[in-house]
Amino acid sequence: MSETNETGDIQNEEGAAAPRMTTVERAELRLKQDEAIAARIQAGKSFDEAIDPSNKEFGPEANPEQVQMRVAKRAQMLKDGISPYPVVVEVTDTIPAVRAKYEGKLEPGQETEDVVAVAGRVLFLRNGGGLCFVQLASGDGATIQGMISKKEIGADSLKSFKQLVDLGDHLWLKGRVIASKTGELSVFASEWKIASKSLQPLPALHKELTEDIRTRKPYVGMIADENIRGMVRKRSRVVTSLRNTFAKDDFLEVETPMLQTVHGGAAARPFTTHMNAFDIDLYLRIAPELFLKRCLVGGIERVFEINRDFRNEGVDGTHAPEFTMLEAYQAYGNYDTIAAMTKKLIQNAALDAFGTLNVTLLDGTKYDFGGEWKEISMYESLSQSLGQEITPQTSVEELGAIADRLGVERDEVENHGKLIEHLWEHFYEADLGAETPTFVRDFPVETSPLVKAHRSKPGVVEKWDLYVRGFELATGYSELNDPVVQRERFVAQAKDALAGDVEAMDIDEDFLEALGVGMPPAGGMGMGIDRLLIALTGATIRETITFPLVKPLN
């Protein structure tokens, strides 16, 4: 008998580690096993005779017994001239529609002459003598009972049903709508057909899913867990709401390049790739900002994009390497007008997706997005916490000494702005926005190279970050549109990059040329769609992303 050692290698009976299989080798092995099972079925063997429960012939890398049994049933269907995956099944009614029409309107045992044809996934199966019960579920989780009777469909058809149908199969039923003796709304089948044969068994539906299944097999999670299905639908409603709000305010949605020659628009480490046709290195987009601003230059005065961004950084409860970002820009606006727009976007999303501004989170607590939202100043709030005045003129040496005294972690490449933000996060980030959304305003210039200088505060830029329950949800700017100042900021960023700052931006000459054509004054904002779902539901970022990136097991 073979087993797995501590390193994950397959061991034979003598204890020697067998070599790992390549992906192709493993796929070919399982294909040969499928062919062997089909050949035995074709030769008239029973299901039990066709399979190899201990995998003596094909070894531990082959399919387990449950999968083999389902492969055998598929082979039997093909032998009998029945397609396990028919092109068409004649569905005339959806399960939710049948429930809506008949729910609560039939007495126990009452039958109708109304014939429906429905299809769904088999989530429950009970085979009796002359009567079988099956529960079918539609994609939205609505269920209906099917009753398959020997008297109605005949002995041969009932026998075939018992032999071939498994949990997880997609099943088509045609029959009269009735209520069972216990009052359960049912389809009393006169015909049945497997619409799609499931070869992989479902997990136990009465048990909580493991984290491994949730992240690596989200399609299984959607079948088994209403919360996972619900998150997909909530996310769709939120995104639809955002688009509707923008449309009502005359914003145009555009698409910007995902492959870029210069990474910019945010302080982040990019992913790199290579384009063979041009023989050049490219960056996966970390933000669409610089291209959306080109739209402002071109005369599209209200523009937004819901896009996929990629940042080669850490992974935690609010960060993912691939995520969905919303960015929007409004000509002749500023960070105050875009803050009002952001508030409207979030409140409309809460109302459209949840029907209330006082949402219920996964842990059962409530969070209210209504009313007035708070505002604080970064420098003033930091001064208050330290008990001494901190200004844009406070030296790097003094800020560094304060950070060391407090045990605040510092970056390898430091400047005034980074130290200010590290110190501020030390006091505020974990609890900020716990009761109500909070705008943190007026940031240091060194960490905001794309933001316009404050109208009355030297060394400060007109930027806000919006915090909800201790994490940053969105950011907004009065956008920098002076090409000379923008070049100065890019040069400072490039010097930081040369000094070792992997998140610093590069100099984008094409963007500077576009600014030189003339960009109107503007307000801009960015908000993670995944983070918006976190804010509205209390989920982690992995739970909000339908297909999160996880490290492969092999």
UniProtKB/TrEMBL annotation:
Annotated spans, Disordered: 1-23
Polar residues compositional bias, start-end: 1-10
Keywords: Aminoacyl-tRNA synthetase, ATP-binding, Cytoplasm, Ligase, Magnesium, Metal-binding, Nucleotide-binding, Protein biosynthesis
Main location: cytoplasm
Cofactor: Mg(2+)
Broad EC category: ligase
Pfam families, alphabetized: tRNA-synt_2, tRNA_anti-codon
EC number assigned by the record: 6.1.1.6
Catalytic activity annotation: tRNA(Lys) + L-lysine + ATP = L-lysyl-tRNA(Lys) + AMP + diphosphate
Domain of life (superkingdom): Bacteria
Note on cofactor: Binds 3 Mg(2+) ions per subunit.
Positions that bind Mg(2+) 1: D465, E472
Localisation: Cytoplasm
Keyword match Ligase: yes
Molecular functions (GO terms): ATP binding; lysine-tRNA ligase activity; magnesium ion binding; tRNA binding
GO BP: any one term: lysyl-tRNA aminoacylation
Binding site for Mg(2+) 2: E472
GO cellular component terms attached to this protein's record: cytosol
Family indicated by similarity: Belongs to the class-II aminoacyl-tRNA synthetase family.
Assembly: Homodimer.
Name the UniProt record assigns to this protein: Lysine--tRNA ligase
Gene source species: Bifidobacterium bohemicum DSM 22767
Source species taxonomy: Bacteria, Bacillati, Actinomycetota, Actinomycetes, Bifidobacteriales
